[in-house]
Design brief:
Radius of gyration of chain B: 14 Å
Structural class of chain B: mainly beta
Largest sheet of chain B: 6 strands, mixed
Distance between the termini of chain A: 33 Å
Number of helices of chain B: 0
Helix content of chain A: under 10%
Number of helices of chain A: 0
Shape of chain B: globular
Number of strands of chain B: 11
Radius of gyration of chain A: 13 Å
Distance between the termini of chain B: 41 Å
Structural class of chain A: mainly beta
Oligomer: heterodimer
Chain lengths: ~110, ~110
């Protein structure tokens, strides 16, 4: 596709439910990032992949958050036992390489935990 | 640690008036600074980056290392400039780690007709 694609666009989850958010980066992009954006805040870094390798997961808020990119293209962010504070927009972004390339963002997955 | 501060949550200006969106940063090395814009119901997109030293849609931003600032400016605001603006910083690439952006909290620009 022409841009970073994310699904679902909107998700309502009951507290305690597991959710999975999918990201299709721009074809050929080596670097993939996940960000969390709470209401009224800027995006905050969660984790980074270089191809299939997860090189940085320092931003994941708890062990309930897990991300993978097994074949170096599509990535999934999984949140187990969701809690209300997990309600946010989850943004995926990709860039061509690890050097100074532009980072392109998807439209985000809006998660509401009720 | 790296940090980006955007002191204004909301900035309202009249059409045709000058605009300045403030951004200050904290970083010990040589950062790369960006402005991202998010129009209503659209994705976050890059507006400009300091290393390009270009003007996009009439906007410019100059990196001032002495004041650790990267303010976004436009001489004459247009209604279509109404959007959320985020200043972001990328630190020096460390090799094994990530090369992620650190964002400010954003400023909502509202251009009054």
């Amino acid at each position: 596709g022409a841009g970073v694609s994310q699904s679902p666009r909107y998700k309502v989850a009951k507290r305690g439910q597991d959710v999975a958010l999918r990201c299709d980066p721009i074809s050929g992009h080596v670097s993939l990032f996940w960000y969390q954006q709470a209401l009224g805040q800027g995006p905050e870094f969660l984790t980074y992949f270089q191809n299939e390798a997860q090189l940085d997961k320092s931003g994941l808020p708890s062990d309930r958050f897990f991300a993978e990119r097994p074949e170096g293209s599509v990535s999934t962010l999984k949140i187990q036992r969701t809690q209300q504070e997990d309600s946010a927009v989850y943004l995926c972004a990709s860039s061509l390489t690890t050097t100074r390339n532009t980072i392109y963002f998807g439209e985000g997955s809006w998660l509401t935990v009720v | 640690a790296q940090r980006v501060t955007q002191p204004e949550k909301l900035l309202s200006v009249f059409k045709g008036a000058p605009v300045e969106l403030k951004c200050n940063y904290s970083y010990s090395g040589s950062p790369e600074l960006f402005w991202y814009v998010q129009y209503s119901r659209q994705r976050l997109q890059l507006l400009l980056r300091h290393i390009s030293r270009e003007s996009i849609k009439g906007f410019t931003a100059d990196l001032n290392k002495g004041e650790t600032s990267f303010h976004l400016k436009k001489p004459f605001a247009q209604e279509e400039d109404s959007a959320m603006y985020y200043c972001a910083l990328r630190g020096e690439y460390s090799g094994a780690g990530s090369y992620q952006l650190t964002f400010g909290k954003g400023t909502k620009l509202s251009v009054i007709p």
